[in-house]
Write a structure and sequence with these properties.
23% strand, alpha/beta
Amino acid sequence: MTYRDPVKILIVDSDPQSSRKLEQILSETDFIISIADSINKAVSLIRGVPDIKAIISEISMSDGDVMAILKYIGGDSRLSLIPVLICSSSRDEKLIIKYVQAGAKDYLIKPVNANTLVSKMAKLINKTQSLILIVDDDKYMRNYLSRSVEREGFKALTATNGKEALELLNSFKDIKAVISDIEMPEVDGFELLARVKAEFPGIPVLLITGHGGKYAKKGIIAAGA
């Protein structure tokens, strides 16, 4: 398994033996590992280490549980796509459902199988590395387009205008394409298109509009969409 860039994974576990075992398994691949033995240390590392791609966490630590991590990354758009894999000896189905509903992407029961762990991490990371940026000031259209691209196996990021879109493009290096409305406040679709062509030339942009008679398809394509 090879990635273009080093893949950073954060292990959160208060049991040194458990975290060392996980580290040993993942270090044999292309993963770069950081370890936190508490919730506070985990949050500090998430805040301070650029480009963490995934988190593997035990449920309970001395200063709290994984719910605090899920809430922290879920409350920040720059972090919200980091997948969290729960790794615990608990087999409580209600507990598993609770954390999955809170945002955890998968659950692995200890003791872990090395091949299963590596496989799960690869799937989670590959999903987050196929991002489509949806840009529309209409909430209904954002949600509709997000569901559409996710049905095709991509992960959707959303922005309400071109300004927000450019901020996300600078924050997320794995965006594969942009789907943008034309008429939006602050930075419209044409200005966003020009900026993407200049600053992110490898990312294709698809422009959409509800005003079909106002914009000529040839003109949109000529602009570079």
